[in-house]
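Q:
My hope is that you can spare some time for a protein that puzzles me. I hope you can help me see how the letters and the tokens relate. Thank you; the sequence and its tokens follow:
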Amino acid sequence: MADAVDGIDRVYQSRLERFVSLLRNPSRLATEVLEEWCGAPVTVEIHHCEEGRLRAVLTEEALCGLMVGGGTFRSLSELLQISSDAGVQSRAVLLRSGAAAVATANAIVVLGRLSVEEHVIISTTSTPLGSALASNGLRREMVRTSGLAAARWSDMATADADSPVLFINTLLDRGGSPVALVQETFLRQILDWGGP
């Protein structure tokens, strides 16, 4: 029995490591990786979309800082290279592959760094953020990743499909200017797919 559990642990851990390695490519969007991984188109359900000044749309806790690689804290305004009075859009979405929920994402988008067309797309459609902003050399930089290293992977076989298994903070950047900070949470369902 222990060998079977260890085998399941290795399979799930290997799948998650492979998935993360695909996300590390700065020219790949998270939705592209998910579509390739799941073998089906990914759709977006927008649960929240609000525009305003950075300090007005975020909680005080969120403004205070975000843990990034190396265990250091940086303020959101520092990461995005904007003042707390800058115009932003706060977004919360659910991503699905078919009927299966595969990820959630919360984003802060710097409105002053978007074209008029991009602003209209992210404000009026359910187009994935990365796809809406993909023109003009958008790059994706993972600034923090954490998974279930301490958990027994075999427990994931019976966990709810919407249990989180991977958390990633990503900076979307164009030519050295951050366009958005996205906090991505990938759900248990992705462990059922083995990827491409």
Remarks:
- The CA atoms of residues 24 and 142 lie 7 Å apart.
- Strands lie at 42-53, 66-68, 72-74, 87-97, 100-110, 138-147, 164-174, 177-187.
- The mean pLDDT is 83.
- Residues 2-23 form the longest helix (22 residues).
